[in-house]
Amino acid sequence: MKKIITITIAKILIFLGRLLHRGSALPGDIALRIYPDILRKISIPTLSIAVTGTTGKTSTTQMIAKVFEESGFLVSHNISGSNLIGGVATLLLNNVTISGKSKADVLVLEIDERYAKIVFEYFKPNYFVVTNLSRDQLARNGHFDIVYEDIKRVISDDMHLVLNADDPLVVQLVDEHKGKVTYFGVGKHSDVEHSVSMDNLDLCYCPKCHKKLIFDYYHFGNLGSYHCPSGDFVRPKCDYEVTNIEMATGEFEINNKVKIHMQYDALYNIYNNLVVYAVGNLCLLKDDTILSVLNGFNYQVKRFEKFTLAGRSGYILTSKNETPISYYQSLKYVSKDSDLKTIIVGFLRVSGRYELKDLSWLWDVDFELLDNDSIDKVVCVGPYADELAARIWHAGIDENKLVKVEASNKLLETVENKTAGTIYAIVYFDMAKELSAMLEGKME
Known about the structure:
The chain is of the alpha/beta class. The protein has two domains: 2-184 and 262-296, 3-Layer(aba) Sandwich (UDP-N-acetylmuramoyl-L-alanine:D-glutamate ligase); 304-438, Mur ligase, C-terminal domain (Protein-Tyrosine Phosphatase, Chain A, Alpha-Beta Complex), CATH 3.90.190.20. It contains 14 helices and 17 strands. The strands form three sheets. Strands 2-3-1-4-5-6-9-10-11 form a nine-stranded mixed sheet, sandwiched between helices. Strands 12-13-17-14-15-16 form a six-stranded mixed sheet, with helices on both faces. Strands 7-8 form a two-stranded antiparallel ribbon. Helix 2 packs across helix 4 (85-94), helix 3 packs across helix 9 (267-282) and helix 9 runs antiparallel to helix 10. It is globular. The termini are far apart.
């Protein structure tokens, strides 16, 4: 009876939350307070896929869910991105009957990397995907080794691990694992780097003998092809590997046979597409269905948006605060454009979850990738405009090219009247949302 009452209360709260446009975690949080064991008393779909990692979780799970839906399955998926235990509980309770029986065929779950240890107390997924691991949200996560240990301790042999072979930190997760492992990665291509592009690699020493790893090339951060000089640790052979990348057209192949056309030509998007193909193929879905979704997917949570302002092309590149790799990927994308450009950088809050003022992570962001000669202006917007301007000036940008706009409602006027060239907005989620609203009618 307690189970039925708890599920009923959760469903009522979910319904009210939708009416009031409130957060998706509260019903689950309340249900767990009423009945802490409720998630052990309900069934989950026969097939479950969990995805975690520092970046790529949301986009990847959106596409995986879509592939299964297009294949005729009823999918349970936390599309809102609510990936802590409360959000996961809300999702699961919303997709069961009053008696606790699952109504879905497949569960596709985005999980915060620190919360896998909590979620997996209640159930273990059939497939566990780890996209990448790097320093992220220092105040919450501390050192990346802490995150790694949290994930490793919940891995069990009955999970099929799907791991990024290009990330040496992720590859360590197979130590002592006796279950199935599938590796994905990106092969060597014309845009690889042969020297360290960031000064803060998260793992550059062999985890076995502690000698410095030798990288044959880098994609970004510490993702690439690596080996220990003693032969103790090496990038594993990929089961699914990207080949023949044509960034100019946004096309690439997987295992030299499957061709995919990306919606936009960013390397991190290649990884997202690769994971989706790998999972779909492992689950024996038809290639035609997988490729149809990947070649025409429309993201629910967009990290890349196009707009036109005063006759100029513009792009919003949503980047995660406190995550240098996320900013690096956006900066790398911008750096490919050698024409005149205006760059917008800003955020309203340091964290979307906590009241933080710590900006030390800005010094881990590789703003040095910006080319002073091709920049008309860098517009620093929001309450931290001064701090952003100081950091970017230290990256070598001419002080006369720095414009500070603390009130975001003045941003478009400033960009239209005081800047030139293509517009790139490298902004956090809060500023991206505000900017999109201001650009209503101008978005593509």
